[in-house]
Design goal:
Helix content is about 50%, strand content about 15%. It is α+β, with helices and mostly antiparallel strands and about 375 residues long. It has 3 domains: about 5-120, Acyl-CoA dehydrogenase/oxidase, N-terminal domain (Butyryl-Coa Dehydrogenase, subunit A, domain 1), CATH 1.10.540.10; about 120-230, Butyryl-CoA Dehydrogenase, subunit A, domain 2 (Beta Barrel), CATH 2.40.110; about 230-380, Up-down Bundle (Butyryl-CoA Dehydrogenase, subunit A, domain 3). The chain has a 4-stranded mixed beta sheet. Strands 2-3-7-6 form a 4-stranded antiparallel beta sheet, with helices on one face. A two-stranded antiparallel ribbon has the order 9-10. α5 packs antiparallel against α7 (about 230-265), α7 runs antiparallel to α8 (about 280-310) and α9 packs antiparallel against α10 (about 350-360). The protein is globular and about 80 Å long. It starts with 6 loop residues before the first helix and ends with a helix.
Length: about 375
């Protein structure tokens, strides 16, 4: 299992970290977030550097890298708010589905377009009345001679409105079959009958989340990934990857929250000495750094399992649980260290704090992750 950082991986981490710090910068992320503006320049730069295809095979124009390398990239993209990783994250996760379950034609049709920047993906699972209960998905895809007619809605859809986006949408093709009645369709957001409304949430303000309505949307059969009725199996495969990917981005954000708090505590003096010299503050920061490092190791371990044997649902849930809760804890502690200064939008800790609150909810709640881990423990999985 690959959980150590060799020279090649360290060089890759340095490359993508330098890119975020120098080519993108915290000021860009701050401006995008404050103005609820999609980070087009960031995504375009990732495409231009060839990194959007980090884990896409060379046969389709990608770099042919592994999931650990992808995790390092997503960690870097989450540096100034894990929201900024989402377009690359969701695209990579759906690309994994296409690679594993798609036809040769789908791989040749979609993956080179992703590498070229002409196609990106978002994830369509959550619905207003189902939440984390994906087995109860109601969005209906009625089979026809030409393919499917899709009716329903999805909510909390990260980046669904972006240009060139197609939604990896989990739909019900058999209303009476429970889990066995689910299928996966790739639905471009410019298809007739697709209506997207951005949601004014207090978090995820740059990439944005949306509600998506499907009003008799005609989707060709060759946009279905996997067999009809095989959606639950695809979802299980998908979630292991999504939770590993999002955990990586959250670790990047949590590390910056700790670094920002440490910098403030080191530079700011009270009662004639640096705030960091007070044991209560110093020890708190030490604990947080230890937790971030532990979360990172869980991410690398889960990503390594994706490369070696298809992944572990338990490890992915542990990584997401730990990373999300560490981000919430680190950003909350960072606000405490910064005091009143942290509440100004110009101070980046306020952004990390918002993202931290969403981190234990987005991509399945901490409670769901604990249930997954508990079940896996009983099954010895």
């Amino acid at each position: 299992m690959r959980i150590t950082v060799d020279d090649a991986l360290a060089a890759w981490r340095d490359t993508v970290s330098t890119f975020m710090a120098e080519d993108i910068g915290v000021e860009y992320c701050r401006e995008r977030y404050q103005n609820r503006a999609y980070p087009h320049a960031l995504y375009d730069a990732v495409v231009q550097n060839g990194w959007i295809g980090t884990a896409i095979p060379e046969a389709y124009g990608g770099q042919g890298g592994d999931q650990v390398e992808l995790a390092v990239l997503l960690e870097a993209l989450g540096t100034y708010g894990y929201d900024f990783s989402m377009p690359v994250l969701t695209t990579a996760t759906v690309c994994d589905l296409v690679l594993e379950f798609g036809t040769d034609d789908q791989k040749e049709r979609f993956l080179p377009d992703v590498v070229a920047g002409d196609r990106r993906f978002s994830i369509g699972v959550t619905e207003p009345e189902t939440g984390s209960d994906a087995a109860s998905i109601r969005t209906r895809a009625e089979p026809t001679d030409a393919g499917y007619v899709v009716t329903g809605e999805k909510i909390y859809q990260s980046g669904a409105h972006a240009p060139g986006n197609a939604i990896g949408c989990y739909v019900r093709t058999d209303p009476d079959a429970g889990r066995e009645g689910l299928s996966v369709l790739l639905i471009p957001n410019d298809f007739d009958g697709v209506e997207i409304t951005k949601l004014p949430l207090v978090t995820r303000k740059a990439v944005g989340t949306a509600q998506v309505f499907f009003d008799d949307v005609v989707v060709p059969e060759d946009h279905r990934v996997g067999a009809e009725g095989d959606g639950w199996r695809l979802l299980e495969y998908h979630l292991i990857r999504e939770h590993t990917h999002i955990a990586a981005a959250m670790v990047g954000n949590a590390q910056t929250a700790v670094d920002t708090a440490l910098e403030h505590a080191t530079e700011r003096e009270r009662f004639g000495r640096a705030v960091a010299d007070f044991q209560a503050i110093g020890h708190r920061l030490a604990d947080l750094q230890t937790e971030v490092d532990a979360a990172r190791l869980l991410v690398y371990r889960s990503a390594s399992r994706l490369d070696t044997d298809g992944g572990s649902r338990r490890l992915a849930a542990q990584a997401k649980l730990k990373a999300g809760e560490v981000l919430e804890e680190a950003s909350s502690a960072g606000m405490q260290v910064l005091g009143g200064a942290g509440f100004f939008p110009e101070n980046d800790m306020e952004r990390y704090w918002r993202e931290g609150k969403s981190a234990t909810v987005a991509g399945a709640t901490s409670e769901i992750q604990r249930s997954v881990i508990s079940a896996a423990m009983r099954d010895q999985a």
